[in-house]
């Protein structure tokens, strides 16, 4: 399976020792979805299983940004960087160019570019990326829709600039 990662995310310290973590490990991991379009054409749905049992705060942040429950989130945002044979990057719903983003936790979780800069950006790997081991937290997997991921990948370039606007037209939590 291909993992979903956050850029430059720090590791949570001693999370396994907390009572809340032990409680979460008995819960079902949440699932979320993106409906994606490119150049105005619907490409399909990508579904994710989030590993709340391993990284509960990161999973909760992603889930909340998918559902828009805090009044902001991924809906309407773009995949601003797509590199074939590597990854698709999105989640910058504040600026749209990879320099912005917002976390439900303020400065705790997800993408960052240094201390106290946590945000909402994520990436979906399309190949094995062992050179990133130890540098990024994997917090979920694509459970359905890898065909859509590969269609998005075809719109990428070596410099990361997509050939079309690739938009998350809808997203949310899957309640089973």
From TrEMBL:
Pfam families recorded: Pro_isomerase
PROSITE patterns from the UniProt entry: CSA_PPIASE_1, CSA_PPIASE_2
MF term (GO), any: peptidyl-prolyl cis-trans isomerase activity
Membrane-spanning residues: none
Key words, A-Z: Isomerase, Rotamase
GO annotation, biological process: protein folding
InterPro entries attached to this UniProt entry: Cyclophilin-like_dom_sf, Cyclophilin-type_PPIase, Cyclophilin-type_PPIase_CS, Cyclophilin-type_PPIase_dom
Catalytic activity: [protein]-peptidylproline (omega=180) = [protein]-peptidylproline (omega=0)
EC number(s) given by UniProt: 5.2.1.8
Domain PPIase cyclophilin-type, residue spans: 33-173
One Gene Ontology term, aspect cellular component: cytoplasm
SUPFAM superfamilies in the record: Cyclophilin-like (SSF50891)
Enzyme class: isomerase
Presence of keyword Repeat: no
Family to which the UniProt record says this protein belongs: Belongs to the cyclophilin-type PPIase family.
Function description: PPIases accelerate the folding of proteins. It catalyzes the cis-trans isomerization of proline imidic peptide bonds in oligopeptides.
Protein name, as recorded: Peptidyl-prolyl cis-trans isomerase
Organism: Funneliformis geosporum
